Amino acid sequence: MKDIQIFERSLKDLDYFKDFQCFLNFKNNARVRARYIKKRHPRFNPLTDLNEHKFRLKYRYTKENLRRIIEIVRDDLEIEYFEPLKREQVPIDLQILSAIRLWGGTEHPKLTAMAHGVSLRTLAKITRRVASVLSSKASRYIRMPATLSEKERSGSAFQAIANMPQVIGALLQTTVRFQPENSAIDLDGEELLPAFTNREEELHIQIVCDAAHKIRDLDIRLIEEHSMLTDTEMFGLSKIKDRFEQNEFRGRILLGNEMVRCSSSLLTPVRFPRNQSEELYNHAHAVTYASARKCLNLLMSRFGILGTEIQGSHGSAKQTITALAILHNMAMEWADPSIDTEQNISPFNSTFFNSVGRSPKSGEDNNRRQFIKTHFSS
Q: Is the pLDDT of residue 294 over 80?
């Protein structure tokens, strides 16, 4: 009997030693710690754990539409899966959800990371990956009307707003701040937390939208400190200007605001209207051009990060902005109500409009004068 008691005590001592060993592993081994937490505390799943209203507030999409986004991106993320993220085994769905929630800017990044059970470093890597995959689809989701029927539909949609003919897009420019990072590497070759520089830089963004507030063309350029270009000069550097000069759109035009110079392909308001025809033209221009302002307001309301600053390299910042433009177009195509209905954004609200550069010199443009005479003369 005594021998049995000694044997039982030995078994208990062995169990205590195993528990202590597990504790040491938990403390020192990240992968064991992740399994320990996962076993006792299942990961938060926003698609099932949040009601529809709270989900929209946090993720800026309906659950149905975010599931659509997940299915579009999932396969590419699985193919692109790389070593650093394998350590924490973040599910694909949760990667996409956490990136979109971070871009929504509804809370501090630390809270976003905590809500999805990842570190800030992992969240930064996740968002870069998701942005890279999404931006690779730009040619599919961001494109000007190509066929004759597409061009006619786009022109008819603009003309239905205020009887402004021949318009195929509205052009608007703004800036987004980003903070460059210098990734630190430790002695073992492991990447540490990104070290962000103290300087802030700006990216110049030029969008062309359609009457349905979808982004049809996107141009992103780094603003150099030594050369502050005007909006007109930025437009001159863009590919869309070359496409119009090559007559790709056959007599159709863009609408721009007063910060860019009027040209044969880009019509702006008359600064000092002198007759009824010019006043009618200005009114039609303002009402039609409001679609561009609403497009930008919707984009920046859905993705609050655009109103603060993007952290990362110049290349990753461009990928992020491109990804957000694609996500915006998806929301417009699916008529996602998460932003439009909750915030009641007016197309004339220019809260987020931040034009750069200097106003062009005044003066009448012959092309615009002829356009007004042809279409707005009484």
A: yes
